Amino acid sequence: MKIVNNLSRRLWNIGFCDYTPEELIKNRSLRAIKWMRHPYKDRWFADPFLFKVTDNAITVFVEEYSYSTRKGIICELEIDRKSMKLCQRRELLSLNTHLSYPIWIRSEGRVYMYPENGEANLLTMYEYNEETHKLIKPKVILNDAVADSSIIKCGGGYYLVATKYPNTEKELYLYTSHCFDGPYVLVSNDPVQTDWSHSRPGGKWFSIDSQLYRPAQNCRGGYGRNLSIMSTTISESSMSETECFKIEPHSFKYNLGLHTINFLDGICVIDGHGYKYPVMGRVLDLMRKLHS
Asked: For residue 126, what are the β-bridge partners?
């Protein structure tokens, strides 16, 4: 049974392509993805957020999930742009609770990260020290158990959207603050989204020709099945959205889902969900379904 479970094991990985938000909106699909190559057999990487792009390397913040501890930590990865090999891994944050979704924001030349930590029933923002590669000065910006929070500056204020525990895949809530680092307060007790196919955030907002877009996870039929790109309008007390299109996984190995997309300096990063051994994984899962 242990061998069977290993052969059908599922994992996540991150991948890259040369692509801009404008190209995504125009083409409504992604180019071929180049997947990161790394030596680790005891963990996987997901929830990527691009931090720095040079001619030779890509730096990205990720969730690193360990099979042994069964929880995520936050890491910084440096990847060779030509070979897609992982060159350097730095651990940024590890707590007793599960961490994921290392989204960040820049303000007055400083970088701040606010990763998901819903198990702790709060959302904490850290300043990121680029010289020491450390997260410092933790500050609680929201006393609520939320998932995949995403902040955007709009008009004269800041807005944060997130789903709430325990129903993290269906109901999306809107929070607001006068400052980027909170505190954030709930705009309404009513969710602004209640659709499984486009509620939970799936990456940073982006703007094209003054139109705001929000990547959202499609969890209908399974967590992180694919992504919905939402056209979004925010006011002081409400948010309205229209789904533009969906992005489907199209990799042979990572065909089971994708749930995060981000852009920086002409590079697009996504994550992909698939079998560790794609052929055997498909066969064994099919056999399970036939015998169930």
From this structure: 113
Q: What are 46-94's pLDDT values in tens digits?
A: 999 999 999 999 999 999 999 999 999 999 999 999 999 999 999 999 9
* Nearest to 196, CA basis, from 175, 176, 226: 226
**Structural contact between residues 19 and 31, judged by C-beta atoms closer than 8 angstroms:** yes
Distance CA 2, CA 100 (A): 28
What pTM does this model have? 0.95
Written in H, E and C, the secondary structure of the chain is: CHHHHHHCCEEEEEEEEECCHHHHHHHCCCCCCEECECCCCCEEEEEEEEEEECCCEEEEEEEEEECCCCEEEEEEEEEECCCCEEEEEEEEECCCCCCECCCEEEECCEEEECCECHHHCCEEEEEEECCCCEEEEEEEEECCCEEEEEEEEECCEEEEEEEECCCCCCCEEEEEECCCCCCCEECCCCCCECCCCCCCECCCCEEECCEEEEEEEECCCCCCCEEEEEEEEECCCCEEEEEEEEECCCCCCCCCECCCEEEECCEEEEEEEEECCHHHHHHHHHHHHHHC
φ/ψ (deg, to 5) at 223: -60, 130
Q: Say which residues have a Cβ less than 8 Å from residue 276's Cβ, sequence separation at least 6.
A: 6, 7, 9, 10, 11
pLDDT digits (tens, 9 = 90+) for 143-169: 999 999 999 999 889 999 999 999 899
| Residue whose entry in the numeric block shows the structure tokens 């180049």 | 34
